[in-house]
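User: As part of a screening pipeline, I want to sanity-check one entry by hand. Below is the sequence and the SMILES for magnesium ion. Please return the complex as structure tokens so I can compare it with the automated output.
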Amino acid sequence: MEEKKDVLLRMTDISKSFPGVKALDRAQLTLRAGTVHALMGENGAGKSTLMKCLFGIYSKDEGHIYLEGREVNFRSSREALDHGVAMVHQELNQALKRNVMDNIWLGRYPRVKGLPFVSEKQMYADTMKVFEELDLHVDPRTMMSAMPVSQRQMVEIAKAVSFHSKVIVLDEPTSSLTEQEVEHLFRIIRMIRDRGCGIIYISHKMDEILQISDEVTIMRDGQYIATKPAEDLTKEEIIRLMVGREMTNQFPPKLHSATDEDIMRVEGLTAEYSHLKDVSFSLKKGEILGVAGLDGSGRTELLENIFGVATRRSGKIFKNGRQIRNKTPREAIRNGLALLTEERRATGIFGILSVRENTVIASLKSYVSGLFLRDKIMTDKTEEMIRAMAIKTPSQKTKIRSLSGGNQQKVIFGRWILTSPDILLLDEPTRGIDVGAKYEIYQLIQNLSKEGKSVIMVSSEMPELLGVCDRILVMSDGRLAGEVDADQTTQEEIMTLASEYA
Ligand SMILES: Nc1ncnc2c1ncn2[C@@H]1O[C@H](COP(=O)(O)OP(=O)(O)OP(=O)(O)O)[C@@H](O)[C@H]1O
Ligand SMILES: [Mg+2]
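Assistant: Here is the complex for your manual check:
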């Protein structure tokens, strides 16, 4: 086949089936040199699978892959890497017990000239060179486990660059990055793009896609839908192509179920090991309370302190007028709270267990009858969650690790809902979740509030807080800078409060 000159990578008619699912059905992708190409689609559309076929992590059933016009068929990521094709995975798999430079050079250590020894000095110098180029301020001798996920991700990107890769795939790279880190990442992406690299960028963040990409390919149910220049696309158009129908509303109508009754009061909450200081507020029965603030303003710490994950220096918590202590998460669960963490993919998944087991694991107590677990109820409850959130899985028995990233998150969400908490603490509940499923989750939150449950929801997405919550607390540098009525406020007002002590 004659390739157009500027085409770097072309994938045609790629099909791939797993037991019970046709994950890819003649999918295709054409990546040009010097462009950022966004790959979009709902959770389970086949984005990660398409990339895993490129890297030989999965072997495709059908189709062809051409790199600069020559057909290739990589059998491993290593082989792809040797041909200048690199990927930063949705789930990072790094050697956490080793340092940064080991992770970058693993398997291709520079040698001491003429000797079979690794040259540490060389390795250090080479790493520093890459880091300087990318403006990364990380000591190459730092242990991977000592760094936050965001920095580990940057290291992974540095690794791709260090291989002089022509094609770099980033699968949801920004899901755990702060705003400044995203800006930094975008500077790096633009730099390598301008050198003639092609970048495949997978993300659910619409604004980022429109900001960084040159072309967009949209997939649905494993099939290719369209490729268009980003400048010809609007958010609405992308959503329409992704979900295959018009989505007129991003948010379900608010039910405003908040009552006058306080279910919880927090007084003077101050953390032992973080800057969280003197936070007081109350939560009504049936209320959806948002928590806004810049990264590092103490939003996650607030939830962790209430839930007993982090140590409290002082402060009191009352539930229904009675003081509760929540010294450990267990105690918090017993007191009717549940916490959906930000890093749920890393901390919440039992990979080899089934979807059903992962769903019911936190609420097993409620299925016990005498000595037996009541199977039927577990199955029904799991089915209810699958339906409520449109979880894409071939069956309840499927191992959770074979679900797409976004669908795994929905399962974990369902797990906490089934513990029937009175108070649900949600940290970035829709991160990594596609637009259609976001709507389902908002709907679920509204319904919970209607049933008299209360929700505290941390989010970095301001429209989401405004579109879902009744009231919003604004944190700034570990303190409460203010509280606003979600229907009366503006993004500007929240931003001003958020920078009050910053
Ligand atoms: N190893 C596997 N075994 C069985 N099914 C799989 C496996 N890997 C992927 N699938 C299925 O293939 C489909 C596509 O999944 P994929 O991970 O490619 O989706 P995605 O577009 O990356 O979604 P997300 O946005 O949620 O990450 C899903 O239905 C998923 O369950
Ligand atoms: Mg994926």
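Points to compare against the pipeline: Residues 345-420 form one domain. The chain has a mean pLDDT of 89.
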